[in-house]
Amino acid sequence: METTNIKRLRDFVTAFASLLDQNPKEPEILEKGSELLRELIKTDDWLPNEFAQPHPQYYQQYLLHSDSLERFSVVSFVWGPGQTTPIHNHTVWGLVGVLRGAEFAQNYQEQEGHLLKSGNVETLTQGRVEPVSPTVGDLHKVSNAFDDQVSISIHVYGANIGAVNRSVFYEDGSSKPFISGYSNKVIPNIWDRSVELRTN
Amino acid sequence: METTNIKRLRDFVTAFASLLDQNPKEPEILEKGSELLRELIKTDDWLPNEFAQPHPQYYQQYLLHSDSLERFSVVSFVWGPGQTTPIHNHTVWGLVGVLRGAEFAQNYQEQEGHLLKSGNVETLTQGRVEPVSPTVGDLHKVSNAFDDQVSISIHVYGANIGAVNRSVFYEDGSSKPFISGYSNKVIPNIWDRSVELRTN
Ligand SMILES: [Fe+3]
Ligand SMILES: [Fe+3]
Ligand SMILES: [Mg+2]
């Protein structure tokens, strides 16, 4: 693996865990968590290449960290050119922060068994952070804004998101169960602080 | 990576985190934690090969899990034939459980600036769990009991052990600072429960 500034990810995990350790309510998590995520994605020098690889057919979801009690997880989403998610929900709070490239996000709401677009397509450029949750709006579809380059966003969720029972939705309002899993068998070791410690 | 029963490691991490979440005192951590570790090492079908590889010269320390706030860590120690640690301390509680092979453990105590052997060499066979800590005895030297095969033990510590400021000691009582770090750049993703969940 190439040398990356993995300390940024470690500091983010530590800060997010400290925030959640105070048992804040969702609005505070979304507000303070967004600040932390904005800081993380401001500089694109820390994500190991192994967790930035697109797949020719499918968008990839690389787990970067899960809390011991699955209180939160951090995931790298990698979209190849033109790739898109289905319309889906989360059932827990989440934050989406664009690290590389740009994404289109379309929100939806359910009304009398039908799905309606909620607002216009938003273009999320590098550095933007957007929340999702059953409270602030939980249904969306996210796409790579580019058809000729990879886009990557870093997501944080209030659960081990790959193991959450969720749903994908179709325009006619029908849905089916969805458990995303993860694309990776190994995650980065962000915890080796020995080089830094020996230097200090 | 080969298929392994990684669920055992995930269940161990979850159970250990739940134990620590109740803020138990050290004796309870050592007692209940030993039970959990004995259960984990009873069956040798879950450690991915990548984290069971010896090095020709050095014993290896593969991080398997670190808690978000570094409250505990789980590490796979892999000894090649005849390999040994120096005499060292931990400064935090720890549990050593032998998963594969066998190990020799010699405890030490410091007395008037000298190191004295404390008890005889113990042979830790597969399935044995031993505690360390400043309270119950923090100085020891651990060796592979075999000169012709690999031995592996699974360790749990009350910190991110690779980043702890520790010491190695010499028989004359002198010591030098020691920060172990880790041998691995990636750790196992123990959090993908999607296959199990879809089957249920
Ligand atoms: Fe989403
Ligand atoms: Fe030790
Ligand atoms: Mg918005």
Automatic annotation (TrEMBL), chains A, B:
CDD domains: cupin_CDO. Coiled coil: none annotated. GO terms for molecular function: ferrous iron binding; oxidoreductase activity, acting on single donors with incorporation of molecular oxygen, incorporation of two atoms of oxygen. Keywords: Dioxygenase, Iron, Metal-binding, Oxidoreductase. InterPro entries: CDO_1, RmlC-like_jellyroll, RmlC_Cupin_sf. It comes from the Bacteria. Gene3D superfamilies: ATP synthase delta/epsilon subunit, C-terminal domain, Jelly Rolls. Fe cation binds at H88, H90, H140. Belongs to the cysteine dioxygenase family. This is Cysteine dioxygenase. The lineage of its organism: Bacteria, Pseudomonadati, Bacteroidota, Sphingobacteriia, Sphingobacteriales.
